[in-house]
Design brief:
Layout: E1 2-9, H1 15-30, E2 35-42, E3 49-56, H2 59-66, H3 70-79, E4 88-93
Helix pairs in contact: 1-3
Length: about 100
């Protein structure tokens, strides 16, 4: 399992519209092969900043499967109008887990 970590900077004043668009976009990503879970969190000190955490079975499920799909195009087109600049994206793998 890998975790996609993306930081979204949303144009100030567009946060509520972005959150509505996110609700519409989630079905596009959640139906992708290898998708496991999604969490989006909003900044407290910086309320125009959001962190997206998506669990994928493999990095290829995200980077090859989803990113090259029509579902990604729909996901991106629904959210991109609210971006102040391009999201910052990294992938992580677990090194320790405590239940």
């Amino acid at each position: 399992m890998i975790v996609e970590h993306a930081v979204f900077a949303i144009t100030p004043g567009e946060e509520a519209a972005f959150e509505r668009a996110l609700g519409d976009a989630i079905p596009h990503i959640s139906s992708a092969k290898g998708f496991r879970s999604l969490r989006m969190m909003r900044g407290i000190e910086s309320p125009s900043q959001y962190i997206l955490l998506v669990e994928w079975e493999t990095i290829d499920d995200h980077m090859e499967g989803f990113r090259n799909s029509e579902a990604f195009a729909k996901w991106r087109s629904g959210l991109q109008p609210f971006f102040a600049h391009a999201p910052e994206l990294e992938h992580f793998t677990e090194v320790a887990h405590k239940p």
